[in-house]
Amino acid sequence: MSLLLKISDIRKAYNGSPVLQGASFSCDENGIYALMGDNGSGKSTFLRVCALLEPCDQGEIVYLSHGLILPHDIELRRRITLVLPKIGVFNTTVFNNVAYGLKIRGLERAAIRDRVNRMLDFVGLGHKKKQAALTLSSGETQRLGIARALVINPEMLFLDEPAAFVDVRNREIIEEIILNLKKEGRTTIILTTHNRQQAERLADRLLILMKGRITIP
Ligand SMILES: Nc1ncnc2c1ncn2[C@@H]1O[C@H](COP(=O)(O)OP(=O)(O)OP(=O)(O)O)[C@@H](O)[C@H]1O
Ligand SMILES: [Mg+2]
Asked: Are 45 and 20 in contact (CB under 8 A)?
């Protein structure tokens, strides 16, 4: 495994109300970690902080690769991705939505086409690539968000309630996508869910966020 994450004693408050109160966690093996906890317990905050999208007030977030501590720079940020439950889509086709991250990285057209097509097939949207992204159903939109994140090959993927607001069929497809990623073994996934059975189906390790701290049940 190339990217390791160790966070220690993270504290974060909003307007004086503490949310994270000494959360520590370390992912020392590739795999899937499922974070559970009550509404408002701080799961999404925790993911944003870990994904370096928001600073914490105290504590340390350390990404390591081959024993070296990595600076929190653009290079590291490109290896990390957070997918939110309600993703914002760009007002263009499904294909272009997924291609965007590759275009801004300057990949050649043929390489972009191959990777986007492969990724759309991977999430079961190959037949929808010409459709306007804004017309997709919620379940399809959720999968588009995952495709858009995966196309850039992140090594650390944070999924905030990846199967919220979708029906059973789409939940199954999303779970299958996550399990296929796990089989490929190149990505560490930290996901949040309110569904205990889903956490058990997907995760190698279950984590609970309670009173601002992470516990392993
Ligand atoms: N930007 C913000 N400004 C002020 N308060 C915030 C902000 N973001 C989160 N909070 C507060 O922090 C607490 C934790 O929110 P967070 O979204 O992390 O919880 P969660 O565990 O993801 O909840 P849910 O299960 O409902 O998604 C909540 O009380 C929320 O209102
Ligand atoms: Mg949340």
From this structure: yes
Q: Which domain holds residue 36?
A: 4-215
Please choose from 12, 45, 214 the residue to mutate so as to test ligand 1's pocket, defined by most ligand atoms within 8 A of CB: 45
Looking up tokens 């966020």 gives 209
Q: How far is the CA of 110 from the centre of ligand 1 (A)?
A: 42
Domain count, the chain: 1
Ligand 1 neighbour 165 (Cβ under 6 A):
no
10-residue stretch averages of pLDDT, the chain, 217 residues long: 90 97 89 96 97 96 94 94 89 96 92 96 95 94 93 94 90 92 91 96 96 94
- Among residues 127, 99, 130, 133, the alpha carbon closest in space to that of 115 is found at 99
24 contacts 11 by C-beta, under 8 angstroms: no
CB of 14 shorter than 6 A to ligand 1: yes
**Structure token pair of residue 48:** 């944003």
- Can you give the pLDDT at residue 19? 98
In this structure, are residues 50 and 7 in contact, taking their beta carbons and an 8 Å threshold? yes
Q: Which CATH number fits the domain that encloses residue 119?
A: 3.40.50.300
The DSSP bridge partners found for residue 214 are 209
d(CA 175, CA 173) in angstroms, rounded, equals 5
88: CA distance to ligand 1 center in Å? Answer: 19
Cα–Cα distance, 80 to 34 (Å, whole number): 17
